[in-house]
Amino acid sequence: MFNDRGGSRTLSDLYVICQLIADNKPLTIPFRTVFQAFKNAYIWNEWITFPIRYCDLPLSSQITFTVWDIAGPRSAAPVGGTTFRLFGKKWTLRRGKHRLLLWPGIEADGCVDSATPSKIPGATDEMGRLEKLVKKYERGKWRKFMQQKLRNPKPYSYTSTSRDLTFQ
């Protein structure tokens, strides 16, 4: 994802193509982000507006994202893709920031049983756990969580041999 141009390392020229899909059929034409020359980080910070209203979206609606790298004149290679379901388990529109899993080297497929899902059920890692805590903090739930923890603190003891606090 780096290019050597004149001896200096710069980031590759990437762009994203996204499309609304429902029941394995496209709802809109694919939309492409505008070209930007990236220097230090990939930050698009760009709004994408689809020509469809929320009330017209089927509950099976998904949005596909495919990141492309410009491989040469008139050619591009997929960096990765993902498919994000717009409605959650309770059939409400998902809002806010989301961490999307990018499947390397393949385009997003947009199928009902997608080969490029935006998250894997049951998979947890430290970064995912921290992001959940940040979301709680941003939603104001962190304060309630901390108040509960302060009301019911866990006992601790100090052992001089290990010089660590041990929680019981």
What does this structure look like?
By secondary structure, the chain is an alpha+beta fold. The protein folds into two domains: 2-123, C2 domain (Immunoglobulin-like, Sandwich), CATH 2.60.40.150; 124-168, no CATH class. It is 15% helix and 32% strand. It is built from two helices and ten strands, in the order E-E-E-E-E-E-E-E-H-H-E-E. The protein has helices at 126-139, 141-151, and strands at residues 2-5, 8-11, 14-22, 25-26, 31-32, 61-72, 75-85, 103-104, 156-159, 164-167. The strands form three sheets. Strands 3, 4, 5, 6, 7 and 8 form a six-stranded antiparallel β-sheet that branches. The longest helix is centred in the last third of the chain and has 14 residues, at 126-139. The termini are far apart.
Secondary structure blueprint with pairings:
Layout: E1 2-5, E2 8-11, E3 14-22, E4 25-26, E5 31-32, E6 61-72, E7 75-85, E8 103-104, H1 126-139, H2 141-151, E9 156-159, E10 164-167
Antiparallel strand pairs: 1-2, 3-4, 3-5, 3-6, 6-7, 7-8, 9-10
Top keywords for this entry?
single chain; 168 residues; alpha+beta; Immunoglobulin-like; 2 domains; two-stranded antiparallel ribbon; 2 helices; globular
What is the helix/strand order?
Answer: EEEEEEEEHHEE
Name given to the CATH homologous superfamily of the largest domain: C2 domain
Helix segment tally: 2
Oligomer: single chain
User: Helices and strands: which structural class?
Assistant: alpha+beta
Rg estimate, integer Å: 22 Å
Q: How would a crystallographer describe the biggest sheet? A: 6 strands, antiparallel
Q: What fraction strand? A: 25-35%
**What is the CATH-assigned architecture of the largest domain?**
Sandwich
Distance between the termini: 47 Å
Q: Categorize the overall geometry.
A: globular
Number of domains: 2
pLDDT averaged over residues: 79
Q: What share of residues is helical?
A: 10-25%
Unreliable runs, pLDDT <50, ≥5 residues? Answer: 156-168
CATH topology name of the largest domain, in short, is Immunoglobulin-like
Number of strands: 10
- Name of the top-level CATH class of the largest domain: Mainly Beta
